[in-house]
């Protein structure tokens, strides 16, 4: 209780007492005291209950956010794994020999092959077997429309009726799909079904129909076990459960132990499993807080759970603290009121001194309680005076810097953290002192040879008169969270690198194209003095500039003669494909804009949206010119290669199409020693 509150209570009590003496008979003091005590006790209880309820809501909101992030991350990892596995099948399904084999089987109707193709059958058998071994598959088959396996890897088990039926049904589709997981050989397996298209499709038909279905059987237990295991951010008792959805029923998948796939559905799960709520899940002894998500493109779902008692464990400590504070407050207020009443009822100084002694004891008890709470929390709390010296540091801070708690008094930031961190902390102190406003930042500390990442918040502390007393600092160790985010970003970068490599390996015309674009655009961006964010956008855009061409049929991408008008329309469709793929990968919007606009021209003659002038982002203008230059210096059978200077002359003589500032930056770089070296390397790589 503050002095102001004590004075207020005293004045109110004195006014009421005088009024009662003058106008009404004197009331029983025990009755009045009891009534006030009951009112105060009820107020303390309801106040405590309100604070605890608020804290519970905040705790559940934090839990909901963390669980949603976890299940979304695991679903993304599964989706990436499935997409990458499906793409690897292009090594086989895009093989002209396999495509010809499938076409012949389809045309014959009875599976009879021409003699030349039949002589190649052992070679194709070995190729499929090698593909299975290289990719750690269980088996691979090529299934005809009649359900027969016309090609299979060595040692492949016999197809089940379900596999044959699913393969024949897949002839009506043009996309890659996967089957349900099933139990086999003490583990989980599942199938990929990839359509095989004719090497030279019949152009008289509008639709492109498969001529064969390539089936890959993969082991799933190890990969799913790795994905489902707890993350570094998981707490004890938290679990990730994988379910297979069949006929709107959920069957538990246990990759690590038998029976691996539950034979009975969990009736507690319904289509609203994506909602965060308290559930009674089969196999759990108590209700759990859970949130789930469907894995796109599959019939799998992930449910993240944590027992109710574990989730609300921090609330118990908080509740004890709140009830303790409320009890202390009740005792202190009651003691003050009792002391005031005794003071007014008696002139005995000795009795008054006793009451103040009792009050002091209650205040000390409250201080001990607050001290106990402060000693148990993990946040780093400190107070510095105007000279920048530590007046107080809690035990968590002492443990963090590995200093005895009592020895921190009088030390400075430089003594505890070194010059680099101290300079940043002093800047924050100066900002708080000048503005009087709270400031925060995320800093890296080198403590005992390890890097710790801490969120630091500083605020201005004043006394009741508004005079400056010092700066309060509160820090929270967020090292694990930041490291998790960095790992996720690194996974994204690796995924991009794999996609670029796969794309270039499938198209000889694009080999090294993205790398050369990246080197050229990085130098041009430096000359134009673009911001760090713009440079990063251009660098990432260069790596991803050709990603949409993965979706273009091989026969169009690698055609040695000029494309027809219809083929050109198909080729230009790679821009829209790239935009869709990058959106699905949750790539930054600035990168998506750069890649989707790089084929636009300033005079509106580009594609796909005929943008003009400033409607085209600077990053897209730079990428577009780099793409043209790198492509034109490479020869094609239907046109000759031109020199870098000839390409630049096209840019210079068409200022209505190409930004003159960007053209000047290209000239500036290419005339430098680094640019001449780049030009030599580019000419050498195209020979």
Shape: flat
The helix count comes to 25
- Roughly what percent helix? 40-55%
Q: Can you count the beta strands?
A: 16
The average pLDDT is 81
Would you tell me the structural class of the helices and strands? alpha+beta
The radius of gyration computed from the alpha-carbon positions, rounded to a whole number of angstroms, is 36 Å
Distance linking N and C termini? 86 Å
Proportion of residues in β-strands: 5-15%
Biggest sheet statistics = 6 strands, antiparallel
Segments where pLDDT lies below 50 for 5+ residues?
A: 1-25
Sum this structure up briefly:
With 687 residues, the chain is of the alpha+beta class.
What does this structure look like?
- Helix content is 53%, strand content 15%.
- It is α+β, with helices and mostly antiparallel strands.
- β14 (439-447) and β15 form a beta hairpin.
- α16 (513-527) crosses α22 (618-632), α16 (513-527) crosses α24 and α17 (532-544) crosses α21 (589-597).
- It is flat and about 120 Å long.
- The model is unreliable at 1-25 (pLDDT under 50).
